[in-house]
Design brief:
- The protein is of the alpha/beta class.
- The chain has two domains: about 170 residues, Phosphoglycerate kinase, N-terminal domain (Rossmann fold, 3-Layer(aba) Sandwich), CATH 3.40.50.1260; about 190 residues, Phosphoglycerate kinase, N-terminal domain (Rossmann fold, 3-Layer(aba) Sandwich).
- It contains 16 helices and 15 strands.
- The protein has a six-stranded parallel beta sheet, with helices on both faces. A six-stranded parallel beta sheet has the order 9-8-7-13-14-15, sandwiched between helices. A three-stranded antiparallel beta sheet has the order 11-10-12.
- The longest helix has 15 residues.
- It binds adenosine monophosphate.
- The site of adenosine monophosphate (AMP) has 16 residues, from β12.
């Protein structure tokens, strides 16, 4: 680690502002659908408790648009999930800013935890407002950042607070950086990446950067159709980003040998009629995909991608983005079969790193999570990291070499 971690600092008797990413998926009834992001912060919380700190927990949840919205209250996260996991009661401040938070933070004893209400109930959070950041910083002596999933955002609680008090990495942030950093260096080969999901525009930067490092990239999902159209194939009404065609053509000219595309798809006239699917082999005949949209890899592409993974015997794999509209059972096969192939590669000793909510969800659904090397808790953050960008939340941490005033 080039940055200091919670292990490197004296925390006994300190008030620690712990930034976590508890932006968890909620059902319509407000139940937490996946608590992975919460569970993953327990080692840091437990360490702080065991070492005599008092903890002020901060997070955002959902997109409340800068004002209080009970749907996105963190109270439910504390009560439903964190208290049972930690087997202790938490205190709660109904506003992250103001007197209640200040008084409750001041009154904390070592081992006690105060959770602040959703940071994004204040528009100043996303604007990285310095006064808002300074007020938050005044609640503690030290900040620990364990919010990898939010560390690509230069928000007040991520990049603002560290201007006023020292900030170090928590164990989850450290784990993420340790898992993802080798992907940008020279990891064991063969090294392959799989990219899917909806939009090329979201992934073009990461694709360009990964192409400098990997031996091959398998492209699936909606983003494959922009590549196919750039090559002159008929794609019907499938998802295509016209504005990206030129950029994709250039990539195909320079790195075409490394980019593997599907040769067929499972198509339907719309997502509303998934029972009437057709397997279409891509061709340049416009009639071949007339009135159809491709929603998943076809059987030939699934087999070709699986064969490629099996025959390449990769030592390093990065996967982000589903291979089709996997939320709809009829179009889930491509994503699930690829997840299984990667599970098998991991069993053979490959280091398999999965980033992005949907691909991670697919791995969980298949019960393959334990076999994978690393499942990132931050889709956007892991992509920006792999684009080669410095994440604002990481840049703000104290360098490993510097000293921290005790
Ligand atoms: P992303 O957030 O960019 O990784 O995109 C994930 C979304 O891409 C999922 O909700 C999928 O349903 C969607 N997706 C995957 N394949 C396709 C496709 N062929 N057409 C439309 N959407 C797709």
């Amino acid at each position: 680690m080039v940055k200091k971690t919670v292990r490197d600092v004296e925390i006994k008797g300190k008030k620690v502002l712990l930034r976590v990413d508890y932006n968890v998926p909620l059902s319509d009834k407000g139940e937490i659908e996946d608590d992975t992001r919460i569970r993953e912060t327990i080692p840091t919380l437990q360490y702080l408790i065991d070492h005599g700190a008092s903890i002020i927990l901060m997070s955002h949840l959902g997109r409340p648009k800068g004002s209080p919205d009970p749907k996105f209250s963190l109270h439910q996260v504390a009560a439903q999930c964190l208290e049972p996991l930690l087997k202790r009661k938490l205190q709660f401040a109904a506003d992250c800013s103001g007197n209640e938070a200040k008084q409750k933070a001041e009154a904390l004893s070592p081992g006690e935890i105060l959770m602040l209400e959703n940071l994004r109930f204040h528009p100043e959070e996303e604007k990285n407002d310095p006064i808002f950041a300074k007020n938050l910083a005044s609640l503690g002596d030290l900040m620990v950042n364990d919010a990898f999933g939010a560390s690509h955002r230069a928000h007040a609680s991520i990049a603002g607070i560290p201007k006023y008090i020292p900030a170090v990495a928590g164990f989850l942030l450290e784990k993420e950086l340790n898992a993802l950093s080798p992907l940008l260096l020279n990891p064991p080969r063969p090294y392959i990446a799989l990219l899917g999901g909806a939009k090329v525009s979201d992934k073009l930067c990461v694709l360009k950067n990964l192409l400098l490092k990997v031996d091959a990239v398998l492209v699936g999902g909606g983003m494959a159709f922009t590549f196919l159209k750039a090559q002159g194939f008929a794609v019907g009404n499938s998802l295509v980003e016209e504005t990206q065609i030129d950029a994709v053509k250039k990539l195909l000219e320079t790195d075409g040998k490394k980019i593997k595309l599907p040769s067929d798809c499972l198509a339907a006239s719309s997502l509303q009629s998934p029972e009437q699917t057709m397997n279409v082999t891509f061709s340049k005949d416009p009639g071949s995909m007339a009135n159809l949209q491709g929603f998943d890899l076809g059987p030939a592409s699934i087999q070709a991608f699986k064969n490629f993974i099996e025959e390449t015997k990769p030592k390093t794999v990065f996967w982000n983005g589903p291979m089709g509209v996997f939320e709809v059972p009829e179009f889930s096969k491509g994503t699930f079969e690829i997840a299984k192939a990667l599970g098998a590669a991991a069993k053979e000793g490959a280091s398999v790193i999965v980033g992005g909510g949907d691909s991670v969800a697919a791995v969980h659904l298949l019960g393959l999570a334990k076999g994978m090397t690393h499942l990132s808790t931050g889709g956007g953050a892991s992509l920006e990291f792999l684009e080669g960008k410095t994440l604002p939340g990481v840049a703000a941490l104290v360098d490993a070499e510097s000293s921290i005033p005790k």
